[in-house]
């Protein structure tokens, strides 16, 4: 097993950890959750994972609030002064900052804490699906990209479209992003290990410590 990154982590059971097999296609009904991959470890249910994400969204929002205020003031001043170009630049900077803050927040905590703060609160861990080891940098970045990348790109695209006369495309982009989120939830519900499309691409799984 790979050595966990970032200090001591809960004891793992390398000899008993069972890697998830490829997810089989299913119907609309959610697949039954299998027994956990190791003693004291269960596959995390979707409701708990969504709650953990909401907690992370709140914490990340608090973290970026001050920057939002500063950039928001600059954007407002630019609009009042009749400088739409500067305002657009401010919106782009705001979107890029949000993108980077999200990437650092999740990638760093998955690699060093084995879980985001929201997951930690609910006793969840995001680990390597094969052996329960801490995620590598490549895995953490890939998981973040497949989980949050589309919405991040959409935010920047909507800002650019907002400066044109085809802003209606922004609504279409929002709809596509919403559809992608539904797809992630659907694929996770169809996996007995609750691996969504993003988990499959990054070879990860979310588990809950029960002991």
The number of helices is 6
Largest sheet data = 3 strands, antiparallel
Percentage of residues in DSSP E strands:
5-15%
SSE order, one letter for each helix or strand: EHHHEHHHE
How confident is the prediction overall: mean pLDDT? 80
Give the CA-based shape: elongated
Query: How helical, in percent, are the residues?
Result: 55-70%
Give the quaternary arrangement of the chains. single chain
Radius of gyration: 20 Å
Spatial separation of the terminal alpha carbons: 21 Å
Low confidence ranges: 1-8, 10-15
Order the strands across the largest sheet as they lie in space.
1-3-2
Instruction: Please identify the structural class as seen in this structure.
Output: mainly alpha
Number of domain modules: 1
The beta-strand count equals 3
Describe the overall structure.
The chain has 211 residues and is mainly alpha-helical. The protein is 58% helix and 7% strand. It has one domain. It contains six helices and three strands. It has a three-stranded antiparallel sheet with strand order 1-3-2. α2 (84-112) packs antiparallel against α4 and α4 (137-162) runs antiparallel to α5. It is elongated. The protein starts with 40 loop residues before the first strand and ends with a strand. Mean pLDDT is 80; it is low at 1-8 and 10-15.
